[in-house]
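Sequence in, structure out.
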Amino acid sequence: MKTNKTLAVVLALSALSISPAWSTDKLKTNAGDDVAQHVQRQGGEPAADPLPGQVSATRVGSQAAIFGSQVPAGTAFRTVALTPGMKYINVASGDTVTFRSGGQEATWKFAESIRGATVDLGVLLPSMPNAHGVRVYIERSHLFTGG
């Protein structure tokens, strides 16, 4: 008899702990859709429009996303003027830099890099004049190295 009561308690507790997992798809997101629809929709949505006054980087590719993201212009600590013939730029991991060329500007926040990285600025800002062919050398992050 004691075994039956123990079994009944265990089954009741396990049923209570499982039920929220089965109902996750019924939870609503801030967008008003359920979680399952929201996750499906995210993969197919186009990239957001650029911020006002910034270069249109239509669909920054997944390769560019590895190196950081475009951010509002007022967040940069440094401004770099891109000129014809420029070969490279050095930045620190986590830096936010505004790039200017002609009348256009775009601000990029570089991701923290464990080993350091290099990327063509034209990959990050494809429609920015004078960006193609300029190598960006990103230093190793001090967050990961403790320095």
